[in-house]
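Can't attach files on this board, so I'm pasting raw text. These are the components:
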Amino acid sequence: MKKLLLATTAMAMMTGAAHAAGHAEDVKIGVVLGFTGPLESITPAMGAGAEMAMAEVTASGALLGGATVTSVRGDSTCIDAGAATSAAERLVTSDGVNAIMGADCSGVTGAILQNVARPNGVVMISPSATSPGLSSADDDGLFFRTAPSDARQGVIITNILQDRGYNEVALTYTNNDYGKGLADAFQAAFEAAGGTVTISAAHEDGKADYSAEVGALASAGGEVLVVAGYVDQGGSGVIRSALDTGAFDTFYVPDGMVGAKLNENFGAEMNGSFGAYPGTDSPGAAKFVELAAEAGFDGTGAFSPESYDAAALIMLAMQAAGSSASADFKDHVFDVANAPGVEIFPGELQKGLELLAAGTDIDYVGASAVELIGPGESAGNYQEIEFADGVYSTIGFR
Amino acid sequence: MDFLNALVALANFVIVPGLAYGAQLAIGALGVTLIYGILRFSNFAHGDTMAFGTAMTIKFTGLLLALGITFGPLPTALLALPFGIAATCLLVLFIDWLVYQFYRDQKASPVILVIVSMGVMFVMNGVVRFAIGVQDIRFADGERFIITARDFKTMTGLDEGLAIKTTQAITVVVAVVVVALLFWFLNKTRTGKSMRAFSDNEDLALLSGINPDKVVKVTWILVAALATTAGVLYGLDKSFKAFTYFQLLLPIFASAIVGGLGSPLGAIAGGFVIAFSEVTITYAWKKVLVYLMPSNLEPDALVQLLSTDYKFAVSFAILIVVLLFKPTGLFKGQSV
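---
Top answer:
Structure tokens for the assembled complex are below.
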């Protein structure tokens, strides 16, 4: 029996080796998103976005002389730093991923960065972590994000509110790194611009009842209620309760709150409310929605384009470095993402890879008009939306 | 006039929502307390039983709507509720037969049953998500409001509005009916009396010829009915989401324990204590005080005892105080 086992193992190892020699490399990219937990309803489209980029590159056969790219999924749970860390640890140590596309929520992203990515020297590109705190986190040059920091969004919200003549608002935020970060950034920007925040009240996600929060918010008053939460979580619960009790009529919805769910949940009740979320009028965005429809998922889902871009950047940087090792390609992420170079849009990854192989510089624009600044985060393009006749539509870009 | 405004503001933001939420918690806590009293363990799968019952009711509501049947101004889900309860009964009886019976026959200690129920909880977590998905579902139809804040203002000429949702009224009415029925059943019927006897002293009950299998079955059926009703009322008032129902477990357990585990009356009182402690302690009294105080004494600050971040801390602080000074809960349940 022992001999049989030994022989089998030896055989397996030999065929494995032969396999590797005969074929080009198999690149693995970890997709760490909250497939369960508070973001479980938007992560499927994010994962699908990232995997669409990988499928596109594999089909092109242009990466590192014909490498195949496989996705290995891990569950970040969005809220449980321990579970997220062990999921990422498994991807790195047991599956041997070359890079991580993720994580989604700011809190778990920070935990994975410090506990897994830095110790193991693995590049991670997050499509959706927007906490300002991550800008100054130590990352050994390994961490990037295709989402902008919320410090920028705080300024955008202030501009939009003041352009409409609102100077007194109430503020509620989801009690986590994302919500707190955005709320603080906004409050600082708004007060510096002469506005007043009457109250800044936290709400917990996934809880049973938001009457207490709405009671406090209504008591403090304000012309507009800024809801820095999640659309399929407490954020919607707070808006529902505020509308029902007549506490507020007009809402400002930041990025986490914008989704088709808002139209479904509230319809005409939201008329007159407004907001902004990352988005661009660059042709890449429309192209991505088209590709996503062909692949069978919703390309308008929040952070789905950013996920595609995050995965694409990883693979393009590998090509630029001529290596799939994080230590080699981490310094090339900026080069492929920013000008100068030939602009690359979604669906053109093959062209990008071939240009890089030929030594031409590229400027990856992608689905979300990626332009990396400062510590490796997206500069941030926002589209301003407004509700009329029960649906929201984009009225401009900032 | 100012006094009326203050009263209406308080009713709109504290009393009405607190009553509805309290009633939902109370019915949920009744289910937990029945299991604890009669089957003698803390059923961690209760939140997911509620989720399953609600999911089934949503399915049947869809079916009824497809057949063109509605309930006039009331939500159709109320018509589908009996079907949802029936489906949930089948599921909990199946789980009892498959899982709990084995441990009961072994006379497993309560702590083992608690862990077993956690296993059941995780499985049901998955079952519910398979059955209906992870997304947020609103299934209330019919009239949304008995009176809206705006109508109230024009009607009375007050500055403050008072909104009463149909679902809030239904919640309170159904809660009263359910509680009355349950107490009648436990106190007046033969089966109900045998259940209380079984709860008080299992050995004596067995000696006097009570059929334990029947008691267990009836308990599960009651629990399924209570859980489904609580879940549907909550879902009608807010919305259905598998994850939120799982989280409902905490306030429900807090209610049952504060009231006294095993005591039905305590579960109801506990539900309201927890609901009102969440809403009132963190309420900002500024609005009410501005109406009541003479203008030179009006507060500028929010007059908020604790920020809303602490609302769960409040209910758990109450829980700890109760356990320290009155371990059996407010209404003499079993000590934990």
